[in-house]
Amino acid sequence: MNKFVRVLIALVVAITPMSAVTPAQAETCQEAITLFSGTPFQQTFPRVCGEEARMALWNNSLGPYLDANSGPAAAWSIAQAAAEEARLAAEEAARVAAAAAADAANCVSAAPVFPGTKWEMTFPAVCTAIGIAGRALQIQTYSENVAVQQATEAAAAAANQPPPSNSIDCNLELWRNAAQCINQNNGTTPPPIVPPPPTFNANSQPMVNPDGTMNCAQADNAITTTCMNLFKQSANGTLDCTRGELKNLPACVNGTAPGGPNAPPPPTNVSTPTSTVPASTSTVPATTGGVVAQPSSPSSQNNSASSSTQVASEKVKQNKEDLFPDADGEEEDPAANLTITYSKSLARYIVKVDSNLAEESLVLRGVKKGAKSLKFTLTTDEDGVAGVKTKTKLSGFTLTLYFGSTKLDSVKVS
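and the corresponding structure tokens:
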């Protein structure tokens, strides 16, 4: 060894620290650890290397700190969660109170309509948004009905005929407090109240639906122009129960109409008014509960008989459906049955899959000792059936069917 090499080795040894970390020591380093981050108990422990230093960290510092502070840190987290829940509850209460205050600030005073006439009516004060919308609809409904009566009386006067008798139903909630109903018996005897039907009471229906649309199942609304037009338009077909105005009708609620689970039956035949009856007094469909006095005629009697037959038929259908048991479909896990057969006429193996997976992709894998593995990709039809014909000799192979990573079935071909 020449002198230059000896000097170079001596220099390297001189500048290399004695405490240099060996590869074996580096493998036992413990990275820095932070416990209970984001809490008052947060503590960070430094990175250490060497098995002895790592064990000392766990035994003398990290481990004891973890044991001593786990309980307090958990209690602090629970208290923080409870405080956040209380804060959210207080915010919700404040929001509800603010909404109530806003409703109170938007109160609408009582409104008299047709003052000084026999149709005088005072509608009460309301505050909430839904109440305001409902009262506006009540005033509109009442005004439409008064307009019909005024037109009827005007037509009678023009024809030099006596004014018609009171044609409104004072049992309806909308009319009970009208001056015309209160004074019809000179104020001595209140008008009789007909008990509601046992299965459906149209008078108990709200004037408006929760979405603010007119509720045509309410008896007072049923005789409005809006609802009558809806019923007439549906005379040649089924009612659209998705309409907000119609969704509370008995047939929509019970789903008893033909043509769909939520479509009510078409309304009963509407008699065409004769020349002696004003066109404004049309027959109200039986499902609405509204009543308007009509003169009797042979055609109306025939329509009534036809309506009775239709209602009886629909009632039988409804009773049958009421007997159907309630049941919820049960979800099934993916399943399949794999069959392998050999067709001598086709000189091919036939692979068939029967599954509960419609229009899905399946993978068929085949393994055999000493042979290369096989893979087939199958696609099921809408009934969950799939298959393939192959010239590949499958004898001795174990074929396993997969849906994704789920094993469905396995067959060993003999």
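(Above: one complete record from the training split.) Residues 51-105 form the longest helix (55 residues).
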